[in-house]
Write a structure and sequence with these properties.
Strand 7, helix 20 and strand 8 form a beta-alpha-beta unit. By secondary structure, this protein is an alpha/beta fold. The chain is built from 22 helices and ten strands. The chain starts with a helix and ends with a helix. It has two domains: 349 residues, ABC transporter type 1, transmembrane domain (ABC transporter transmembrane region fold); 238 residues, P-loop containing nucleotide triphosphate hydrolases (Rossmann fold), CATH 3.40.50.
Length: 609
């Protein structure tokens, strides 16, 4: 339980008033429960005519609270019998018992109602924190993690926390209160009998603890197996075309069946161990009642007991009542262990380190006035193999700078450093002489527009995809951006024009159409810095011409960094930097590089051939 409150404690902070409410109502419920059982004493005496003594009204100064309360309860019962007879008194005491039960159940309901905002709020907060963290984490984190595993943590693990932990809050908060008040009541009735009872409890706790010992570890293993399953499903959806093309359906099915069976086996072991909680606690609890019944009965039969038979029955009723919260608490312990395994997996995201930190005194930047400069920049993922080595280059305002080189030479990594998608290992990147680490991240990225090789669209309308990231964009502004991007014509020919849903990742559109919408999005943002990452490499000739025309319009009066494999698309760049194995090996205009007869000319000759 200590681990539970350590990990989950801060989630309770926003719900203090509801925690206070549920504690208060559960205390009332427990007290009303004890008082309602107290009414059983005169009822039992009336039914079995056990007590023939005469009682007189006592004040609380005449004896202990327990003795005075019991004496006065018997006194008023005798008065009722004298005035109304035994049958009517029995009915009145029964109605009193019903009224106390009403108060008890009403308080119990109020305590449970106060828990609802806590339960639903904690699950909502965990989901919001995970999503917020996903948005904040650098791209390098997701290159190390599988999408299926992340999806499992956001969905399955959060649902497990909801099912296992928050559903146990009622038992965790309510039952200790009930147990404490019941134990105090038992001690008040007979401390000797209660001391004997408490000697039996450790045996019960030991039996339950043995079952729950390995539950967290087994649950963690089961959850990891389902993450593997989700990863296979995610890979299948993304590569369905290839799977069908290579007739690999059987192979993928076998992979999934294997993981699915492993998950089923692990989940079954967890479920069996968890289901053992109730029968074990039920048996041990009954065993405890039997032992106490024997011990108490022996004392009463010998005449050495401090309580009479009716009080002993009352004692047994309270003792039996305490078993239910004890069983629920043990069950909650199992559920929490299972949920803590999921919480541990969730915390791998929530506690993942974000090395891209914004300074407290970071500055805003309103535009680009001079240019961008990279000075002695080196970079490696996770401080392992270095991807970029001592890069030095300048990008003056208003010029188009191209980066070329073979795949894996570090071109995309280099441009990802400018908007701080990754953090530098060494060197500096400056905009107008200011280190980008001195700038607010939001302000920095607002300067930059991206058009990538894969046009990333969202399952929304064409209008919302173009207006994405631009608050309050009007219909006229969106249409104007689409016209500049050569997209307006095909948009108007679609079913619902700008209100057409593009499908998952823009799947209802062709590659050229998706790319022109992404260009329109960049045009509407109107950034002073533009990054083009292989923006036309995946298109057919006709689409490429339309997209290239749109790009030329977009690049006018902007500082552009273009990554290209097709050298024909960057012939007119003001300066071309040639990268090879993470280093700049050549730089100059297209003509200058051809005359240099170096690596660039080799690439050009290969493409011409």
């Amino acid at each position: 339980m200590r681990e539970f409150f350590k990990i989950m404690g801060h989630y309770f902070a926003p719900y203090k008033k509801f925690v206070a409410g549920t504690l208060s109502f559960n205390v009332l419920s427990a007290f009303f429960n004890v008082f309602s059982f107290t009414l059983l004493l005169p009822i039992l005496n009336i039914l079995f005519q056990i007590d023939k003594g005469t009682y007189h009204l006592m004040s609380f100064s005449d004896g202990s609270l327990k003795d005075v309360a019991l004496n006065n309860l018997y006194y008023y019962s005798q008065q009722l019998i004298n005035h109304y007879g035994q049958a009517t008194t029995l009915l009145l005491l029964g109605l009193g018992l019903a009224f106390m039960t009403l108060l008890k159940t009403g308080s119990y309901f109020a305590g449970s109602a106060c828990l609802m905002p806590i339960k639903t709020g904690i699950v909502r907060d965990i989901r919001a924190n995970i999503y917020r963290k996903i948005l904040a984490l650098p791209l390098a984190f997701f290159s190390e993690e599988r999408k299926g595993d992340i999806l499992a943590r956001v969905s399955t693990d959060v649902n497990e926390v909801d099912a296992s932990i928050t559903s146990s809050l009622d038992m965790v908060i309510k039952n200790p209160i009930f147990i404490l008040i019941y134990i105090v009541t038992l001690i008040t009735i007979s401390w000797q009998l209660t001391l004997f009872t408490l000697l039996v409890v450790p045996l019960m706790a030991f039996g339950i603890g043995r079952i729950g010992k390995k539950l967290k570890k087994k649950s963690l293993y089961a959850q990891s197996k389902w993450s593997d399953g989700l990863s296979i499903i995610e890979e299948t959806l993304g590569g369905l075309r290839i799977i069908k093309a290579f007739v690999a359906e059987k192979k993928m099915e076998q992979r999934f069946v294997k993981v699915n069976n492993e998950h089923r086996s692990a989940a079954m072991k967890v479920a069996i161990r968890q289901s053992a909680a109730h029968p074990v606690s039920e048996f041990l609890g009954t065993l405890m009642i039997v032992v106490v019944l024997w011990f108490g009965g022996t004392l009463i039969f010998s005449g050495s007991s401090t309580i009479d038979a009716s009080t002993f029955i009352y004692y047994l009723v309270i003792l039996y009542t305490i078993l239910q919260p004890l069983k629920e608490l043990s069950k909650a312990g199992y559920s929490i262990q299972k949920g803590m395994a999921s919480m541990e997996r969730i915390n791998k995201i929530l506690k993942a380190e974000n090395n891209i930190k914004e300074k407290t005194d970071a500055k805003d930047i309103g535009g680009l006035y001079e240019g961008i400069e990279l000075k002695d920049v080196s970079f490696s993922y996770n401080n392992q193999r270095e991807i970029l080595h001592h890069i030095n280059l300048k990008i003056p305002k208003g010029q188009t700078v191209a980066l070329v080189g073979q795949s894996g030479s570090g071109k995309s990594t280099l441009v990802d450093l400018i908007p701080r998608y990754h953090e530098l290992n060494s060197g500096t990147i400056t905009i107008d002489g200011t280190d980008i680490r001195e700038l607010k991240i939001k302000s920095l990225r607002a300067l930059i527009g991206n058009v990538n090789q894969e046009a990333i669209l969202f399952n929304d309308t064409i209008f919302n995809n173009i207006a994405f990231g631009v608050e309050g964009a009007t219909r006229e502004q969106v249409e104007e951006a689409a016209k500049i991007a050569n997209a307006h014509e095909f948009i108007m020919e679609s079913e619902q024009g700008y209100d057409t849903i593009v499908g998952d990742r823009g799947g209802k559109l062709s590659g050229g159409q998706r790319q022109r919408i992404s260009i329109a999005r960049a045009i509407l943002k109107n950034p002073p810095i533009l990054i083009l990452d292989e923006a036309t490499s995946a298109l057919d000739t006709e689409s490429e011409k339309l997209v290239q025309d749109a790009l030329f319009r977009l690049m006018k009066s902007r500082t552009t960094i273009a990554i290209a494999h097709r050298l024909s698309t960057i012939k007119n760049a003001d300066i071309i930097y040639v990268l090879h194995e993470g280093q700049i090996v050549e730089q100059g205009t297209h003509e200058e590089l051809l005359q240099a007869d170096g690596y660039y000319k080799k690439l050009n000759d290969m493409q011409t051939l």
